[in-house]
Amino acid sequence: MEFTFLGTSAGTPTRARNVTALALSPSGHKSWYLVDCGEATQHQLLRVHYSVMQLRAIFITHIHGDHTFGLPGLLASASMLGRTEPLDIVAPVQTQRFITTALDNSDSSLSYPLNFIDSEAEDFVWKDKHLEVKNVALSHRVPCRAYVFTEQNLERQLLQDKLKKDGIEPGPSWGELQKGHEVTLEDGRILSSDEYTQVPRVARRLIVAGDNDDPELLANACKHSHVLVHEATYTQDVADRVGPWPQHSSAEQVARFAQQMQVPHLILTHFSSRYQLGGSGTPNISQLADEARQHYHGQLFLARDLDRYRLEKDLSLTCLNSVSNSPHKTSSVTPGGDHD
Amino acid sequence: MEFTFLGTSAGTPTRARNVTALALSPSGHKSWYLVDCGEATQHQLLRVHYSVMQLRAIFITHIHGDHTFGLPGLLASASMLGRTEPLDIVAPVQTQRFITTALDNSDSSLSYPLNFIDSEAEDFVWKDKHLEVKNVALSHRVPCRAYVFTEQNLERQLLQDKLKKDGIEPGPSWGELQKGHEVTLEDGRILSSDEYTQVPRVARRLIVAGDNDDPELLANACKHSHVLVHEATYTQDVADRVGPWPQHSSAEQVARFAQQMQVPHLILTHFSSRYQLGGSGTPNISQLADEARQHYHGQLFLARDLDRYRLEKDLSLTCLNSVSNSPHKTSSVTPGGDHD
Question: Which residues participate directly in catalysis (chains A, B) (predicted)?
């Protein structure tokens, strides 16, 4: 599983950070998924290897503009490129209304169908051959969701001893079982894949949360997840000064929660534009990292625009800096930091 | 009068060019005006000296997304910065509907009022102390306008000989007359400013046209204008191949028209993303310049993102490259070109 941050700033863009979006793809596949779509997400895509022609679905966490205003432009550009594949848009009903009105009032007719799916439906679940996606309700000024992405259709290993013991000779039926299919033998026996194969590893699971002032809501989801991507809009002192109204989390708050849940990998994002990236200016993004590191002892990253991550099959997480981001030499997230 | 191109690409952004927007300001004043607002216009503003706090009015040429999809984000960001000044938005009714729906469905309430003004109203005219703005209907797939900006309240020179001859002594009344005000003397005489002052130069006039396949529609407006900013989406050969449907102009078509009208300064913009900027790749932006230069013998520029222009009081036009654009060393618009 790979994912790239397309925007890591809260509310408004800065010269170094765009507003929120994240691209996710199963390793080795061209099809991909977008979580949130702040303004200029299509511009960020010009700097990475994801093409709107292969975009499979968009998942919107909540209706705020810094997570949605890039939708009309991205959809219209995909149409100008001649996309014909249907596109699923998982979003609150208001976002559907925004998209429809934007397209209707800009003389835009798309070359492909949109399938709107209500993200706030009870028992929401979305699936394709690569991923199963569920969501968790968060606490924010408007209804907001975290999306939980679980790898699907893991590679199977044949239980060869058992196959031989049951008199099932090597042949096409072995291949079918390995693909997860049921097989009917000539003698009428029906073999289930689960009985004759095993999955030798755990399915990778990633949580991408929207804006949220109560990380505890993710406790259940975190129990079997390997990466948590969560907002940390402020350091605790700024959060205290700003007060509870914006309903965002501090770095301390998320770090404490992740530590308590023993989340192996934590990536903070959605930083207030007041925090400067690099240099010695204050307030500085390094303060968020320092604060989180005091309370969380797993692998911590602070997201930067265009940074690409890979969650390996062995559940390790690495940050592979994108070419476009090459001015920053290390995969370290905090300037001068030692997060990993 | 100064203006900066914030986007010069047609339809979709490229890595070097954003979609359409242009910032215009009276020299020496902080207040400014925006013509069109493609997606990521607020991002481009982070690279220039125009602040949304001083934005006086937005003029939208037509409803297409590459000219309008930046509006919700720009308006919301101005609100997050705490703007309180009302903002005029001159636009087709559909664009007003788009903005309202975008704000309503993203939980955005602005900290300042919007005044919507219908750009397609008959006898449209907009004025403030710096500028008078009229518009001209163009020919495109949807109703589209060119905006004609005429400098207002030019500095006046006192006709001192005439004042003295009429027995009007130097004093506060001279100052009032020079400001363009009417003055009532103690002896009851009423003096009009026009009678005792003169404006020693012509008002600068700039046309910023939207998408258009019939430059002739601007013939009247061009008679007393000093700069024409017009789209040239294609070279003529590409326009012939594409056919008339998109209703855009070729470089040849606009150049021939500008030559015929003896427009002193012509700036082409809104280039199809197929044209590469710089290098030797084809099709190349230099082909548009070469084609235009064959038919137009005034001062020709091809707009680049973030290039800043100044129309002087003597009606000369200069391209002052912005700092952000410094990788391009000359003010020349076409790589290696000799447009001026």
Answer: 66
